[in-house]
């Protein structure tokens, strides 16, 4: 059955691969983007997750075209890395507002329709550093750890209506961000990863697909690592 799926930040990187996998599955897929040319084959809706009115307008447009969102992937995220003493209030707030509060805004809005349908899948894209910590990423790691508490609370609040809430925690993924790292740095990172390589965006998308599938109907409040073994133990 074709579902109404929304992937925030689905115009590039991991989000684009997640959206493409849902399209390949035959779902009706909407993505959000802020600027530039969105990919084809999806309903592309302009939305800034830091702006509640923009989120509301995006959902109204998506619901008119595809019906209520049944699968939400909260993927939009940013970094503003620097060591703690140099981290400004603005570096902190921007990252929390986008990664954590932005995910809250879209999850809250999606829940409205899911409660009426008595089904739904909330999937939050966190990171291995949410639980592992990362020097220079105090803001980012806090935002990604926050998603775990939020998802688990949603799992408890919404479970009786057959709505699941889960977290996917990727490690290093082959994206524009990691491609620009010097080879020496990449080699050092890879030494820490049992599988000895980065993930492809498709490998993250495959786990998201599974969480949205019938096979994962009894999985909620879980944190699923897609990190090649980097974070083992949490
Ligand atoms: P990119 O930087 O390639 O893409 C980020 C996406 O988020 C873009 O689509 C961007 O939209 C969107 N976005 C950022 N801010 C906002 C906002 N305020 N409102 C709406 N959309 C916004 O990131 P990746 O694909 O690398 O990462 C995707 C997710 O995966 C993020 O949450 C990231 O933290 C997480 N992650 C990434 C890892 C990696 O190795 N790359 C590892 C672990 C987790 P726009 O194009 O308009 O800027």
TrEMBL record:
InterPro entries in UniProt: KR_dom, Sc_DH/Rdtase_CS, SDR_fam
Family statement: Belongs to the short-chain dehydrogenases/reductases (SDR) family.
Biological process according to GO: fatty acid elongation
Keywords: Oxidoreductase
EC code(s) of this entry: 1.1.1.100
Residue ranges of every copy of the Ketoreductase domain listed in the record: 3-176
Pfam family, one: adh_short_C2
Top EC class, one word: oxidoreductase
UniProt-recorded name of the protein: 3-oxoacyl-ACP reductase FabG
UniProt keyword annotation of Oxidoreductase present: yes
One term of GO molecular function: 3-oxoacyl-[acyl-carrier-protein] reductase (NADPH) activity
Species this chain originates from: Nocardioides panacis
Annotated coiled-coil segments of the chain: none
